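Lab notebook, bench 4. Still working through the backlog of constructs that have no structural model yet. Next entry is a single chain of 350 residues. Request: give me the structure tokens for it.
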Amino acid sequence: MAVSKFNGFRAPYKSSFFRGTLDRQLGRNGIFSTSGPVTQVGPTITVPAFSIVQQGLIIEKDTTTTLSEPSIPVPYYLVISAPTPVQIDDLVFSFAKSPADISPNEVLFASYDGLDWQFPTFLTIDAVFDYINEQNIATGRVGPHSGLRTTVNGPNYDNSPGSLIDKSGESQNFVSIASFPIIADDPDYNRVDRILYRRPDDDPNRIGTREFLLGNTYDVAPSLLYDTEAFSNAAVRQTVKALADKATNEGHLITASGYGTSIVLSYTKFSSDRQTVVVLPITIASAVVDAGFDAAIDLSGNLHVVYAKVTGVFYRKFDSVGSPLTSEIGIAAGINRNPRIKIDPSESGG
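Model written out:
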């Protein structure tokens, strides 16, 4: 028979897997296989033997079919339909101008662009399985389904047979017990061990295995985080800020030195060649809580310094020899361990 149609199967094809795969073909149209390409010589089109599905009805034609070129301009589409499931060759071959002209009862078989005939993507069992996998992921079914319970059996952990859906949506079944030796407890810290399912990624057809993963140890009490700030005279902290007067090239050095809340800011001035100390170190601020501070110099050579104390961030202005021009001014509440100040070098600083 040139044409065969299948809309059901007899026993022994009764398994739920087989029926489920068949059910997912219902409502689908497409090509399963062909014996070759569609060819055209002049106005004559030759359609090869094929196997297609139309709304779940599987249709096979084991002979070629000859058609005449349609009168519509390219591109156009060759469609096939079977008006009945009766075992007769009543197939209808027609042409459509666009995919929108194809009805649900017609199968898009090939398209012609004026140069070549091309097939659409064939339907495959792999496509059905991909659909099943996508549904498993979309519905949150990834994880164990049954079994896979772990118990202690003498010196081993035993993981029972069972089934699961892996992260790619595929179902995996394990028919045997997986045993893993028990690793002795850590004498000082707790540990959480795990039995994992891992699928090798070197080949898409590899089946995963169950593996034992030794856990990291942890203390039952939270660990103490020690402050690295020095609170001892034996570990003095020091930070230095160097400034240069653009007019005279004299150097101004401000140093924060100390520990805890006893850090002191000192000022030293050097000659333009940095060979002579013009102003010996003098204290310009005390009881600073952190070695972080900042300073800037203005056009007149005045120094502007910001620093932090317990009660907040403070500002003070000094002249070019370290003498205060203002009293200590609070500019922000709370401790800021990284205060910053910027002065436009073309301004006198007020």
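Notes after review: The chain has a mean pLDDT of 82. The CA atoms of residues 5 and 87 lie 6 Å apart. Flag for follow-up if needed.
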